[in-house]
Write a structure and sequence with these properties.
alpha/beta; FAD/NAD(P)-binding domain; Enolase-like, domain 1; 3 domains; five-stranded parallel β-sheet; 22 strands; about 25% strand; binds flavin-adenine dinucleotide; binds nicotinamide-adenine-dinucleotide; flavoprotein
Length: about 475
């Protein structure tokens, strides 16, 4: 029986980074992955295909150029599924190649098949050809991720009623679509459909969209999506989704019935632990298939770690990678360093894009933290005008006394990139004065940081004038 210092189950972002981190420490590591899923949900059905699809849609529809060239501007007028999938297939293949290559050059073998425990340190791999191989491991990292939740009340057929894995293989673009669940997945796909001209209805059981985001930014997103014909039904539960000869019917608990060509059911995900024979390792998962871990990502069995989506929130590729690295380092007694999970950015690739780091206005208000807001609107930035983005905005939340940056919220082109400037300032415990004094390239969207910082400083100065406290914190003199 082959024996390893570390065996990783799952080759998504969490598993890859755990295996490579172990290899870099000079340990023998191996990865087990089901056939056709190298790179995990991230590469095959989730992050990468959805972001590539979005990019293809933005390019082919010419959506981002319409402010400059008129509302009828298109790069291609009759966009087909083939036009869209060509780019996705190309990028996914490239990414899989990168992962295989990285594992190979770090001498990490990849076993192909489905893994399950036969003991706390023994893992059986069921290959697709029926062969079963058992390998031993001093440490195990479970990085098996999640799959879409599929309730029995929804008549999935993979063609007209689909989950977020199946949406990528739709045979034709729907004229109308219902999206069930306005989580990040639902909103990203609703944006993509709407950009393609599909008439979209979004059903969400909560009374508002993405409640962890800044309200003003969500209002801006709602405005943009409604402007593109999206209908939102909040505080509505879906009872059943039915398939009929002439299309689908989504029936709500309130009695409403919504017909559509296609339904995307994107209301949550389930941890992939049911086939792991966890009991053989002395472990158990919760009812959503998730594993519980401590701060070092150890499960109740100390040599078995769990990382990535299978442990739940925040369930992002970026965090999953970092959790994988930390688990491997911990297993081999290597200091992990302090990862700044407090200033972890969130990027939502709706159209337009949203990204933020730190607190929202609602959170600061609830915590009685005095803060000031500084805003830069893209339409007042030369780069915004050049790009034809008049709706974008960058908003800074600043502590009214210490002048430290408490939150950064960006809406519009390149939001997910721009947020990292604010993240760095926050991570280094910087004040708004750094942004006031720094010189930014011109014309850039990054210049928005300076504009927003000046806006916040001007408002703080106005308060100080009234209170007589004018010069106290001028230009970081605290
Ligand atoms: C549509 C969509 C869009 C997303 N967009 C973003 C985004 O823009 N940004 C972002 O940060 N995150 C995004 N995410 C989330 C991101 O994809 C996940 O956070 C990330 O993939 C989790 O990584 P992971 O390694 O935990 O698991 P996964 O990527 O899910 O990989 C787990 C792997 O384990 C394998 N596996 C499971 N059971 C077994 C077994 N018994 N034996 C062997 N192998 C097994 C699976 O086959 C799978 O390949 C998105 C997700 C979806 C669905
Ligand atoms: N850009 C990104 O970072 C990104 C993109 C996509 C997905 N992800 C991650 O993938 C994970 C899964 O995303 P998700 O959107 O599937 O799940 P989710 O749990 O975040 O959202 C599901 C939504 O569906 C709603 N819902 C549930 N049942 C319903 C019903 N019967 N009727 C109406 N509404 C219902 C919920 O209230 C919730 O808002 C998330 O953790 C997310 O962070 C991240």
């Amino acid at each position: 029986m082959e024996h390893y210092d570390l065996v990783v189950i799952g080759s998504g972002p969490a598993g890859q980074k755990a295996a490579i981190a172990a290899a870099k420490l000079g340990k023998r590591a191996a990865v087990v992955e089901r056939r056709d899923m190298v790179g995990g949900v991230c590469i095959n059905t989730g992050t990468i295909p959805s972001k590539t699809l979005r990019e293809a849609v933005l390019y082919l529809t010419g959506l981002n150029e319409r402010e400059l060239y008129g509302q009828s501007y298109r790069v291609k007028s009759d966009i087909t599924v083939t036009d869209l999938s060509a780019r996705t297939t190309h990028v996914v293949a490239k990414e899989i190649d990168v992962i295989r290559n990285q594992l190979e050059r770090n001498n990490v073998p990849m076993y192909s098949g489905s893994a399950h425990f036969v003991g706390p340190k023994e893992i059986a791999i069921d290959a697709t050809d029926g062969d079963v191989k058992t390998i031993g491991a001093d440490n195990v990292v479970i990085a098996t991720g999640t799959r879409p939740a599929r309730p029995s009340t929804v008549d999935f057929d993979g063609e007209t009623i689909v989950d977020s894995d199946q949406v990528l293989s739709l045979r034709k673009l729907p004229k109308s679509a219902v999206v069930v669940g306005a989580g990040v997945i639902g909103i990203e796909y609703a944006s993509i459909f709407a950009a393609l001209g599909t008439k979209v209805t979004v059903i969400e059981q909560r009374d508002r969209l993405l409640p962890f985001c800044d309200r003003e930014i969500i209002d801006a997103l709602l405005y943009q999506l409604r402007d593109r014909g999206v209908t939102f039904r909040f505080s509505e539960m879906v009872e059943t989704v039915e398939r009929h000869e002439s299309g689908t019917l989504t029936v709500l608990k309130s009695g409403k019935q919504i017909p559509a060509d296609t339904v995307l059911y994107s209301a949550g995900r389930q941890g992939m632990t049911d086939r792991l024979d966890l009991a053989a390792a002395g472990l158990d998962a919760d009812k959503r298939g998730r594993l519980t871990v401590n701060d070092d990502f150890q499960t109740d069995v100390s040599h078995i770690y769990a990382v990535g989506d299978v442990i739940g929130f925040p369930a992002l590729a970026a965090t999953s990678m970092e959790q994988g690295r930390r688990a491997a380092y911990h297993a081999f007694g290597e200091p992990t360093g302090v990862t700044d999970m407090v200033h972890q950015p969130i990027g939502i690739y709706s159209i337009p894009e949203i990204s933020f780091v730190g607190k929202t206005e609602d959170e600061l208000t609830a915590e009685n933290v005095p803060f000031e807001v500084g805003v830069a609107r893209y339409r007042e930035l030369a780069r915004g005008a050049i790009m034809g983005d008049s709706y974008g905005l960058l908003k800074l939340l600043v502590h009214a006394k210490t002048r430290r940056l408490l939150g950064v919220h960006v809406f519009g082109t390149n939001a997910a990139e721009l947020v990292h400037i604010g993240q760095t300032v926050m991570g280094l415990d910087g004040t708004i004065d750094y942004l006031v004094q720094a010189v930014f390239n011109y014309p850039t969207l990054a210049e928005g940081y300076k504009v927003a910082a000046l806006d916040a400083v001007n408002k703080m100065r106005a308060v100080a004038r009234v209170t007589g406290d004018a010069e106290v914190h001028e230009l970081g003199s605290d």
